[in-house]
Each structure stands twice: as C-alpha cells, then as structure tokens.
Design goal:
Blueprint: H1 3-19, E1 50-51, E2 71-86, E3 89-96, E4 105-108, E5 112-119, E6 130-131, E7 151-157, E8 162-167, H2 173-178, E9 182-188, E10 198-207, E11 217-218, H3 223-227, E12 233-236, E13 249-252, E14 256-265, E15 270-275, E16 279-283, E17 291-294, E18 296-299, E19 303-310, E20 315-321, H4 325-329, E21 333-339, H5 353-357, H6 366-377, H7 382-396, H8 398-401, H9 419-423, H10 428-434, E22 436-442, E23 445-451, H11 459-470, H12 482-490, H13 493-498
Parallel strand pairs: 1-2, 2-5, 3-11, 4-9, 10-14, 13-21
Antiparallel strand pairs: 2-3, 5-7, 6-8, 8-9, 10-12, 14-19, 15-18, 15-20, 16-17, 16-19, 20-21, 22-23
Helix pairs in contact: 6-7, 7-11, 10-12, 11-12
The structure holds copper (II) ion.
Length: 500
C-alpha cells in the first residue's frame, strides 16, 4: 500500500466509525468499545442479595469477585459532626458514613443496587444523594431526600462501568458539598480490574472557613468565600495531615499502587501530581480508555480518575494539587511512604523532603495548638510560646535561615547570635510581618537581599516565632505578644521598610 492509499484507508475507516455511531473520534477506529449503558444490562440479579462492604478512606473494599449480576444492598448513613480540619482547628462536617470523603462503594457493572440512605437523628439538616453512576434523572437525588431520623430507599441498575463521584444535592447544594458531602462509587467492569498490590482512596475538596488558614478553634463555613471560589483549605481526605506523618499511605518497592482519586470540589479543578513518580497508567476522568506515562492528570470538580504506578525507589512520594500554593499554603498534600532497598542505578538517593516540605511532610503542630488553647484560656507561658514558635519556625523560616539559625553564608543572614536582633529586639515582629529589603549588616557581614513578608501567619503565630527566636541561640530573650503583632500588621509596611 502506498502512502496515499494508506491515508485514504484511515479516512474511510474513521468515516465508517462515525456512521455506525462509534465511539468519540479521540479513540482509534479499531479500539474496542464497551458499548456504554446500552450494553451494560446483563439481565436480572442472580443469587441471594449481597450487603455491600463499605470502607472509610483511604481504604477500598475488596474486588467483587463475581461473574454474574447480583442485587447489592448499600446502607449509608449521613452524620453531621465536628472533626479536625487542621491541627487545633475543627469544622462541622456533613458526612456520608462519618468521614470525608464518604464511604467507598464498590459494585459490578450490571448489578442492581438497592440504596438505603439514612439521616442520623441528631442531624440538623435534610440530605439526599446524587450518584454519578446512576442512569436516571437526578442520579437518585429526588428519590432520596431524607429528613433527620429518617431513611429513604431507591434502586438502580449500574449500567456503565467506571469510577463515579456521589454527592449530596440538597439546597443549598454548594454548601452541602463544601461541608464534605461527597465520595466515590466504583462500578467494576464485568471482568474486574487487574490485580495490584495496593488500592487507595484519595479525594480532594476545597473548604471555606471564616478564619484564616490554620486559625485555631471551631471555624464556621464562609458562604462569601465559597461563592468567590476562594478556599481557605484545599485538602485530600478532609483534613490537613489526613495522609501525612503516621497516616501516610504505605507501600514497598516492587509493588504497584492503584489510586482512586476523586475531586468533590465544590469549586476547584485538581491538577493531581505525585512528586517523583510518573503515572504508568491513568483512566482520565474515570473513563475506560487508559492514557500512559502521565505526569499530572486533571480531575474535574465532580470527577475522578484511576491512577496506577509501579514503585522502584524507596522514599516519600508527595501527592499534590500542582496548583502549587494549594499544596504548600492550603494543605493539599499527602504522602505515599515507600519502603525498600535503595536502587542507586535508578536514583542516587538523598532525601530532600525536609527542605522541600518543611513541617508539611509531618505536621507535628501539637505545641502550636497547645499554645493557642493556653492563649485563649489566658494562661499562655513563655515556654509554651517557645515550643510553638519552634514548630512554626521549622515550617516557615528554616528554609532560608536554616534549622540551627546559622543562615547561609552571603545569602541568608544568621539569626543565631545576630547583632541586628540584639540592637532592637522588638523589631523582629515587624521584620516577620513586613519582610526586609535593602542593605542590612549582621555580625559584620553585609546582606542586600529581600525577605518576603510572612503575613500569611496569624498574629499569635508571629508572636510565638518571634519569642522562639529571641530566646534561642544566644539572642537577648524577651517575649513578643499577639497584640504587638496585631499592631505591627496594622502599620503601613512600606513606611516601615523605609526605616532601614
Ligand atoms: Cu446534604
């Protein structure tokens, strides 16, 4: 066949696929199609009804392991409850099954699902459920409106295979979703999914609180921020630290991991990325036809993806929303901890996490919340402030000034034994909030650089860091207060910079 006739053959084949109502033109003409819902009915359910195993995140129920359609009974309870959203910060979440995201549901294509939605007696709101895996108006929403202390039931046949989001659709819908009312349902293909070593359930969501990021205490929902799509937190599995430190997802070298990654929104689209890994296989948007060798996959609000990769090198793999301020400043960060022998032929080795992530790899901000509670109770001591300040320093200042306060020669001035601090200990509060630029001389060395303002910190965080620095490394001691920080914040920062 010459080049021209080959091209013609391709055009003709593509045309034929179009005529027969074949799959979308992004799929090669000869790619097998599932036939969608029209070929998803495998007849009436067989055998005794099965009670679905539901799991809390990050766990995924076992494969269904069936070669025939069945009737599957799902019982899901809506629970409204206060839970941590960050260290020392709580939020009243509305949940499917007591967790954010809600319980993971797993069925087989062709199954008849009898869905029971309960709303706990102590709930304040009515709720319902819209499952994106349902064929029928509202995805179940209209049939499942449930008042507190009640239960609703509806039945659907899972005609399309794939990974689907479910969510509450009770007005105001955005608020119910923003409060954590979403989860995933997997409709396995008839032959099941290929076996892997680990399956995990990870779901992103954006959250809107009246207080700032990490502002302590119970934080109410902020409708205005939600409408402006300006989240305070962007999180995996409903809390900062839900999947870091002790709660990192475990795996070993030589294993293959499959992640079911959902995005509840309500507003943001996720650029899902695992730092240091490449997705060997992705089912983008939860669809059937895979993509291979992907760095970052987009997960729409109200969408999901299946992501798989094989692990060669041990270490901490950080999952982020690569809209990167969300990861480092709003909490969208999770860790896959891979154990195993080094493989120097593939990667030379050297952990860079502490530099890359600061306290975010292993948020251990207990001291910070202790100090916040003590402050609220009016019993805050200098030692509590120093302990909290030390934690915060690690996350905020140590990338430049180093954990030991020595700085980096010629680049970042030392805070340890700094004569600049000693000359005027009080001004450190302003330096933190307003930053510093222009020439400064510290211990006889000139610096002419820029320190960006750290005004993302709350007033008590600034006070605690300042107190820690003043009482460390031979500095003159003293105590910085929240009021001092508030006063410094209220000043015009430009006027302040002119002083130096
Ligand atoms: Cu709801």
């Amino acid at each position: 066949m010459n080049r021209l006739s080959l091209a013609l053959a391709v055009v003709v084949a593509a045309g034929l696929a179009g005529c027969t109502g074949g799959a979308s033109d992004t799929v090669a003409a000869d790619a097998p199609t599932t036939g969608g819902s029209a070929r998803g009915d495998f007849g009436p359910p067989q055998g005794e009804p099965i009670h679905a195993v539901l799991t809390s995140p990050p766990h995924v129920p076992p494969p269904v392991g069936r070669d025939h359609p069945a009737k599957v009974v799902v019982e899901l309870e809506v629970v409204e409850k206060e839970m941590p959203i960050s260290e020392g910060v709580t939020y009243t979440f509305w949940t499917f099954g007591g967790t954010v995201p809600g319980s993971f549901i797993r069925v087989r294509q062709g199954d008849t699902v009898e869905f029971h939605l309960k709303n706990a007696p102590d709930s304040k709101m009515p709720h319902n459920i819209d499952l994106h895996g349902v064929t029928g108006p509202g995805g179940g929403a209209a049939s499942s409106f449930t008042a507190p202390g009640h239960e609703s039931q509806f039945t659907f046949k899972a005609l399309n295979q794939g990974i689907y989001v479910y969510h509450c659709a009770t007005a105001p819908v955005g608020m119910h979703v923003a409060n954590g009312m979403y989860g995933l349902i997997l409709v396995e293909p008839p032959e099941g999914l290929p076996k892997v070593d680990h399956e995990y359930y990870v779901m992103q969501g954006d959250f809107y609180t009246t207080g700032k990021y990490r502002e302590k205490g119970l934080q109410p929902f902020d409708m205005e921020k939600a409408i402006d799509e300006n989240p305070t937190y962007v999180l995996f599995n409903g809390a900062e630290g839900a999947l870091t430190g002790d709660r990192s997802l475990p795996a070993k070298t030589g294993e293959t991991v499959r992640l079911f990654v959902g995005n509840g929104g309500p507003n943001l689209v996720s650029s899902f990325h695992v730092i240091g890994e490449i997705f060997d296989r992705v089912q983008p948007e939860g669809g059937t036809h895979p993509q291979e060798n992907v760095q970052t996959t987009l997960i729409p609000a109200g969408g999901a993806a299946i992501v798989e990769f094989h692990l060669e090198v041990p270490g901490s793999y950080v999952m982020v929303d690569h809209s990167i301020f969300r990861a480092f400043n709003k909490g969208a960060l999770a860790i896959l901890k891979v154990d195993g022998a080094e493989n120097k032929a593939i990667y030379s080795g050297k952990e860079v996490d502490s530099v890359y992530l600061g306290d975010r790899a292993e948020p251990n901000l207990k001291a910070v919340s202790t100090a916040a509670k003590a402050h609220a109770a009016g019993t805050l001591t200098r030692d509590e402030q120093i302990a909290a300040g030390k934690q915060l320093f690690t996350g905020t200042c140590s990338v430049c000034h180093q954990a030991n306060g020595e700085g980096l020669k010629g680049v970042f001035p030392p805070l340890a034994g700094s004569d600049y601090i000693a000359q005027d200990p009080r001004r450190i509060v302003k330096t933190i909030l307003h930053g510093l630029s222009g020439k400064v001389t510290v211990n006889g060395t000139d610096y002419n650089s820029v320190m960006p303002p750290m005004n993302q910190l709350t007033d008590d965080e600034v006070a605690n860091i300042a107190t820690f620095v003043l009482n460390s490394w031979g500095n003159p001691g003293g105590l910085a207060t929240k009021d001092e920080a508030a006063a410094a914040r209220a000043e015009n920062p430009n006027a302040k910079q002119a002083e130096h």
